[in-house]
Amino acid sequence: MKRRHSVRAFTSRPIEDSKVRQILEAANSAPSAGNIQSYEVFLIQDEGKKRELALAAFAQSFVAEAPMVLVFCANPERAKKYGKRGRTLYSIQDATIAAAHSQLAATALGLASVWVGAFDDADVLKALGNPEGLVPVAIIPIGCPAGEPEATLRRKLDDIVHKV
Q1: Phi and psi at residue 40, in whole multiples of 5°?
Q2: What is the chain's alpha carbon radius of gyration, rounded to the nearest angstrom?
């Protein structure tokens, strides 16, 4: 986990299908509320679609430069058995945990990624073909890093952990 860093520069080398599958399987193995997996994952490798996503992400061009991009969307309808909390929170949490698992799997496979949360929801959904009822949560570009990522400073445990 300590090897995972946000990377915004990727080589153009394609990702092997076996690695793509392992990343997707890691996302699928993420815990979820009531094991209902109230999220959908979109795999984008098409150059035009990646450019659309980069524009939807407020022109963050590195999104289009990654060989593959995963978009994680909450599916509130799948969490409806938990009422409002399921639709507004659990589905978002499910998508978030699955996205984090995909990043850790990518790192374990020698790849790099970055979490993109700055985007226009409507434009992301348009790039995905306007799926009904979904809420975009994260765009995760994945690829081989173009250089060695720098480690960022983290808060000290004493600053974030509060014993009660």
Answers
A1: -130, 150
A2: 16
In the three-class reduction of DSSP (H, G, I as helix; E, B as strand; rest coil), residue 56 is classed as helix
Residue 59 in tokens? 């022109």
Bridge partner list, 71 = 42, 139
Mode of pairing for the β-strands spanning 39-44 and 112-113: unpaired
b vs e for 101-113, b when ≥16 Cβ sit within 10 Å of the residue's Cβ?
bbbbbbbebebbb
Q: What CATH number does the domain located at 17-160 have?
A: 3.40.109.10
**For 45-96, what is each residue's pLDDT tens digit?**
999 999 999 999 999 999 999 999 999 999 999 999 999 999 999 999 999 9
Phi, psi values for residue 38, rounded to 5°: -85, 60
Token digits of residue 23: 């990343």
Specify the residue for token string 């348009």: 126
CA–CA separation, 46 vs 57, rounded Å? 16
Query: pTM of the full predicted structure?
Result: 0.92
Opening angle at CA 38, ends 127 and 132, nearest 5: 35
